[in-house]
Amino acid sequence: MDDLYPTLTRVTETGGTVRGEPVLDEGERWLVEIEDPSGNRLGLVAPAPTARSQTMLMVRDVEASSRWYQELLGLTSDHGGPAYERLLADGELVLQLHHEATDHHHGPIGDAGQARGNGVLVWFGAVSDFDGVVERAEQLGADVVKAPHRNPPEGEGNGPGHREIWVKDPDGYVVAVASPDGEAWEAP
């Protein structure tokens, strides 16, 4: 089992029962007891991952922003709706969108009257379909902050040796998209 929440959700959706809260075992793994629909008790083990970025952006229109990111990067919706969205890449959470006026359980996450994105760069790296992203950014009419370019510039070595494009999303956040490191390798 790789991911605790989807697995426990599948257990309950298929008629099973989760028998108590998951327990963290020495910070390395989650243990939880379940019961299948026939009453058999089983133990599940899931790795306890280390911290990873799960960026959340405050946006004016969650559904429009979700469509924009899905179109540009091929992300998939894992929640949907006008107040909140979770976007996945290859089944992993990479971006959350939160409506500017939604209190939810924590109160507003920002001041809706202020400009968004000042100093924020939302980075998507190792994107294999870089040329497709460039094409889709043009189709979406995205404001290009930095046109496609090599990092580092040609003639300056190979680290990280990828291509980048920087565009603004519908709320003004700068979104940098990079091809995989080494994709723009330069022969000496």
What is the 3D shape? globular
Poorly predicted spans: none
Order of helices and strands: HEEEEEHEEEEHEEE
Supply the number of helical segments. Answer: 3
CATH fold label of the largest domain:
2,3-Dihydroxybiphenyl 1,2-Dioxygenase, domain 1
Number of strands: 12
- CATH class descriptor name of the largest domain: Alpha Beta
Oligomer: single chain
State the share of residues found in helices, binned by percent.
Answer: 10-25%
- CATH architectural arrangement of the largest domain: Roll
How would you summarize the topology of this molecule?
Elements: H1 4-13, E1 17-18, E2 23-25, E3 29-35, E4 41-47, E5 56-59, H2 62-73, E6 76-77, E7 84-89, E8 92-99, E9 121-124, H3 130-139, E10 143-151, E11 162-168, E12 174-178
Parallel strand pairs: 5-8, 9-12
Antiparallel strand pairs: 1-3, 2-3, 3-4, 6-7, 7-8, 10-11, 11-12
Task: Kindly describe this structure.
- Strands 1, 2, 3 and 4 form a four-stranded antiparallel beta sheet that branches. The protein has a four-stranded mixed beta sheet with strand order 5-8-7-6, covered by helices on one side.
- The protein is globular, with a radius of gyration of 21 Å.
- Helices cover 17% and strands 34% of the residues.
- It has 188 residues and is α+β, with helices and mostly antiparallel strands.
- It has two domains: 4-47, no CATH class; 56-178, 2,3-Dihydroxybiphenyl 1,2-Dioxygenase, domain 1.
- The model has no long low-confidence stretch (mean pLDDT 90).
List keywords for this structure.
188 residues; alpha+beta; 2,3-Dihydroxybiphenyl 1,2-Dioxygenase, domain 1; 4-stranded mixed beta sheet; 3 helices; 12 strands
